[in-house]
Amino acid sequence: MAAMVEEQPVTLADSSACVDELIHRVGKRITLGLPLGLGKPIRFANALYQRAKDDPSIELHIVTALSLTAPGGSSSLEKRFMGPFAERLYGRIPELDYARDVIGQRLPENVRVSEFFFKAGSFLNNKDQQRNYVCTNYTHAVRDLMALGVNVVGQMVAPATEPDQEGYVSLSCNPDLSLDLLPLLRAREAAGTPVALVAETNSHLPFLGNDAAVETGQFDIVLEHAASDYPLFSAPQMSVSPEDHLIGFYASALLRDGGTLQVGIGSLGAALVHSAILRHRHNEHWKQVFDHLKVADRFPVVSEYGGTDVFEEGLYGCSEMMVDGFIYLMEAGVLTREVFDHAGLQTLINRGELTHSVSLDTLDVLRREQLIDSPLRARDVQWLCRYGILNPEVEFKGGRLRVGEQSLDPDLDSEEARSAIESLALGKSLTGGIVVHGGFFVGPEAFYQRLRDLAPRDRQRICMTSVNYINHLYDHAFGNQRLKAAQRVHGRFINSAMMHTLSGAAVSDGLEDGRVVSGVGGQYNFVAMAHELPGARSILTLRSTRKSGEETLSNIVFSYGHCTIPRHLRDIVITEYGIADLRGQSDEQVYLQLIRIADSRFQADLLKQAQKAGKVDASFRLPEHWCNNTPEAVGEAVKIAGDTDMFPAFPFGRDFTDEELRLGKALQTLKAATATRRGKLLTLWRAVKANDDDNRYQPLLERMSLDKPRSLKARLDRRLVIHGLNLTDTPPNTGNTNA
User: Fold this and answer.
1) Which Pfam families does the entry mention (predicted)?
2) What is the DSSP string of 553-580?
3) Of 132, 435, 493, 577, whose CA is between 20 and 30 Å from 599?
């Protein structure tokens, strides 16, 4: 850690006093930048928002992304289901008041909230948020925050927990934008604009070092009140469907040992992580599925770019979001490839000219590449100690190497000096390697606990850092383009899409009527980077179909009036039916490869549209072996590996109880059945006749507070639940393995 600055922030224990200090510094026109997701300082943000509600003379503009709120449900049944669940997971976490008012569309006139990324689908029908949405790449967010006039930044930080951390706090879950934003705000301050940087400590947040550890003096105000520290907002584990598992399986076959992995949030990411662990730990079973699906024969891109064996060299993670899956990959021995923050050193490792084991040969190679001199100089010794090539206690004094009381000749051409250096000064292995660079994290509580429990050495192998370092290749304060390219060999940048057009464009963030579903985030950056890095590939995953009410629709479409990734950046696309390798292909081949991995219920119509547009030869007919893309084929493939034993619904644990899983399935079925007016009437008619005469569902009805309904509405809800359970009730899937 660098030397501490002398300035110390104003440290307060009361959030209202923090607001007083803030207004004293910057006045009442406040543009507040808050981190994406987890890192929002809830106590401070709530106090400032309440002050703005009480004082209309304050102009407050909150600029952020992914404001997390506990799920509540919209219908009465959903509220009955989600209420106890939300209380169990979020009952001790204070609400983010402005976010709840955004959902209710009840912000006061003097408060505006702009986000550049939504929780998927949460604001489709919120006109205020649709109007205030800021469309930007993740890497441009800092630039756009500055353009919007941000003069206050608030962030939750982890306080020091060890003596060597004294004087520092950790940006922990959100160094992504803050590391670049803080110096820009200081420059703005130097130019005459008052600013305020506010930190709110929370002991529940894991202290992560490396780039994420910053001097406390970088902040102006620190809210520190341990008694009111609150648990971290958790994102429950999502169930992984058989379709998700097959998508993840195909993606795992494209991972190159010794390569680089980026992966997104959600069930598709979890499926990939699970299959990667299967490939490593249960390779024989993994290969059974690989052979059953005839992956090598049907999709030759796997043989050229992927692999089927265990990960002997291991993977390195470079992902804007450090999902909990990276921890499972670490624990499974998959995420083990360390990278170093020196391009020359990393290049030599990539070429196999240096290993992690240190010897005199290490010094000879470094000298040959002119990374060190002989005799060794002070700067050489400092550099060699930094990476563990020399023992950390080695010093350079008076032109000699000092190891305790020993004084050694630094001349690498002297056999006597070499022998002394080998026995007294050499380290054993390289140190300072990183196995994952991440920009932000949010996940289940079990993930946070794993981070808190990490051994110091494993914690040091995680570097939370700037998203501008991770998401593109341009030179950055933490490393230039040469370093990034050396670290990110065999990059596999894996993200999900909602739809894909036959021409090769991906739809990931919005609808053709202009409404925003989520946001671009970093997807475009990673796709573009895959086209720039030698040997890298962009992999977009999507389920082949989706449900709209009772209707099944194809997610592979002929065309669509919005795109996130343009067709000229098309690369690899995966559905549960296989892999489409689109890079460098003609339009006809692109259209056909995507039709090949579409659901067979839609292939004929897609082909007809392509032929009508002149993109596919009119004489082309669908090969018979393309036409088995059915849900039944998915189920058969999953069973090859042992069904739920190898592909469980919750491979990394779950937050829902058995009862909640059964109820959730029933409620989802009811929601789909009542999506149309006809379906709603039919469902109500059938529900009226539903009874639980043998008390089969009594515990489930008690969970929904419908065991003794009093009102007419409650009695109808009870019958609806019974009807839904009659349609869906099966013993719950309790699979909970980590492969």
Assistant:
1) AcetylCoA_hyd_C (PF13336)
2) EESEES--S--SB-GGG--EEEETTEEE
3) 493
Separation of CA 216 from chain center: 27
d(CA 487, CA 79): 48
| Distance from chain centroid for Cα 635 | 28
Mean pLDDT of 311-336: 97
Q: Measured between alpha carbons, how far is 280 from 259 in angstroms, rounded to an integer?
A: 14
Is the separation of the CB atoms in 40 and 440 below 8 Å? no
Cβ contact 440:205 at 8 Å: no
What is the DSSP pairing of strand 400-403 with strand 406-408? antiparallel
Residues facing 401 on adjacent strands = 396, 408
Sequence-ordered list of residues with C-beta below 8 angstroms from that of 384, at least 6 positions apart, any chain: 363, 366, 372, 376, 390, 394
With 70 as the cut, is the pLDDT of residue 734 above it?
no
Q: Dihedral, CA atoms, 311, 313, 319, 322, nearest 10 degrees?
A: 70
Q: Record the pTM.
A: 0.94
CB-based contacts of 292: which residues, under 8 Å, 6+ apart?
Answer: 637, 640
CA–CA dist 707, 700 (Å, integer): 8
Is the pLDDT assigned to residue 276 strictly greater than 90? Answer: yes
What is residue 623's predicted lDDT score, i.e. its pLDDT? 97
Q: What tokens were used for 671?
A: 């929601």
Q: Is the CB of residue 116 less than 8 Å from the CB of residue 522?
A: no
Q: Does the structure show a pLDDT above 80 at 7?
A: no
Separation between Cα atoms, residue 302 and residue 158, nearest integer Å: 42
Q: At CA 147, angle to CA 144 and CA 150, rounded to 5?
A: 95
Local structure of residue 701 (DSSP, 8 states): H
Contact 5, 217 (CB under 8 A): yes
| Identity of the residue numbered 606 | L
* Helix (H) or strand (E) run with residue 346 in it: helix 343-350
Q: Each residue of 349-363: pLDDT tens digit?
A: 999 999 999 999 999
Q: Tens of pLDDT along 178-223?
A: 999 999 999 999 999 999 999 999 999 999 999 999 999 999 999 9
The C-alpha atoms of residue 272 and residue 541 are separated, in whole angstroms, by 10
Distances (CA, A) of 621 to 126, 593, 636: 45, 13, 26
- Helices and strands counted in the chain (H then E): 29, 25
**How far is the C-alpha of 201 from the C-alpha of 396, rounded, in Å?**
40
699: CB partners within 8 A, 6+ apart: 659
- Separation between Cα atoms, residue 275 and residue 648, nearest integer Å: 11
Q: Which amino acid is at 191?
A: A
- What is the rounded distance in angstroms from the CA atom of residue 335 to the CA atom of residue 315? 5
Alpha-carbon span 323 to 605, nearest angstrom: 38
Q: How far is CA 269 from the centre of its chain?
A: 9
Alpha carbon distance 218, 198 (integer Å): 9
Neighbours of 187 (CB within 10 A): 12
Spatial distance between the Cα atoms of 155 and 137, rounded to a whole number of angstroms: 21
Please, which residues bridge with residue 575 across strands? 578
Please tell me the distance from the alpha carbon of residue 158 to that of residue 618, in angstroms, as a whole number: 63
Instruction: Assign 709 to helix, strand or coil.
Output: coil
How many whole angstroms separate alpha carbon 628 and alpha carbon 598? 10
